């Protein structure tokens, strides 16, 4: 587990950036693990029929990938005390190229007394932010 000196942190400090390649295989694996077999996550014809621009990554898959930046920084998933996001834009997964999700984490707030750090996460796909108010409370 990473040792983080809370006194050395500053609001706005970047904690890391990670790129996640989501492929159609990723969607199949996630569907199997989560039980979410909604056909918009694997069938182009169904996605088009309901007015979507293509097959979409599961929102919870996107959310789970994004929090990994905070987990990597703190070194232990058990130190994530709270995590919330708003889903604002879809991640369209191309059948050949997939979709690259770029996630950056920054220190958003520091509560030294309770040893909590709020990590603000920015998740970007195709130059568009896809998660709004993505924040993880991390116990350090």
Q: How would you describe this protein?
A:
This protein has 140 residues and is of the alpha+beta class. The chain has a single domain, classed as Hotdog Thioesterase (Thiol Ester Dehydrase, Chain A), CATH 3.10.129.10. Helices cover 24% and strands 36% of the residues. It has helices at 24-34, 44-49, 59-74, and strands at 14-22, 80-87, 99-111, 116-125, 128-129, 131-139. A hairpin with a 4-residue loop joins strand 3 and strand 4. The radius of gyration is 16 Å and the shape is elongated. It starts with 13 loop residues before the first strand and ends with a strand. The mean pLDDT is 97.
Amino- and carboxy-terminal Cα gap: 10 Å
Can you tell me the CATH topology? Thiol Ester Dehydrase, Chain A
Biggest pleated sheet: 6 strands, antiparallel
Shape: elongated
Task: Provide the residue-averaged pLDDT.
Answer: 97
- The protein's oligomeric status is single chain
The CATH homologous superfamily? Hotdog Thioesterase
Q: What is the CATH class?
A: Alpha Beta
CATH architecture: Roll
How many structurally independent domains? 1
Count of extended strands: 6
Order of helices and strands: EHHHEEEEE
């Amino acid at each position: 587990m990473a040792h983080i000196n809370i006194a050395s942190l500053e609001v706005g400090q970047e904690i890391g950036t990670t790129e996640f390649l989501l492929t159609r295989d990723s969607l199949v694996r996630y569907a199997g693990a989560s039980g979410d077999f909604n056909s918009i996550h694997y069938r182009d014809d169904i996605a088009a029929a309901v007015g979507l621009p293509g097959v979409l990554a599961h929102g919870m898959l996107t959310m789970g990938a994004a929090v990994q930046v905070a987990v990597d920084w703190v070194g232990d998933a058990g130190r994530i005390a709270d995590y919330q996001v708003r889903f604002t834009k879809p991640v369209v997964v191309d059948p050949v190229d997939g979709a690259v999700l770029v996630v950056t984490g920054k220190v958003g707030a520091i509560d030294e007394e309770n040893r909590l750090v709020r990590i603000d996460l920015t998740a970007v796909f195709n130059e568009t932010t896809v998660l709004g108010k993505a924040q993880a409370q991390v116990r350090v």
